[in-house]
Sequence to fold (202 residues):
Amino acid sequence: MSLRLHNFGGSMRSHLPASMLAPGMHQEGDGHALHQPVLVLNASYEPINVCAARRAIVLVLKGVAMTEEENGHFLHAARFAVRVPSVIRLLEYRRIPHQSRALSRKNILLRDRNTCQYCSTTLPSGELTLDHVIPRSRGGLSTWENLVACCHPCNRRKGNQLPHEANMKPGREPRSFNLHTSRHIMRLMGHSDDKWRKYLFY
Ligand SMILES: [Zn+2]
Fold:
């Protein structure tokens, strides 16, 4: 299945089941717009997450969420077109636990905004690593408070030294990724997208 993105005219709307769209979308590599961030609102309109447009479209086609704002692009296949969302809202309210999010490389890079915490360089995820502020060899744990985004040169330079030994301290105190942090990140991302603002700046 060939899927292309267009940002011009037409208002065809598709309600095809996700099973027809998802496989083609997963094979498709050209869709920059499919990786655009989409704001996810709870049924209560409370912002709860950010996901890639591709995932948002699947949620809408599955009937789990509805599009609240569109981004002006269409996802085109041979016989149908889907509007690419900018904001979606879950149809059923989901209880979001107030505990921290899962500790993962992705979430640490997100928390640190893909910025090396030692030299403040912002890099693509693939060019960053995670640094144990207190090295594991010195008893440091793999926790939110001890892991930071780090570029490879800084990571090599710091090696197995403690921050004061290497004279390298993280720019920000590493914290767990709680709901407050994630809303802060959503706001930062939302600055570039007018359509997000009314949901984030209330
Ligand atoms: Zn660095």
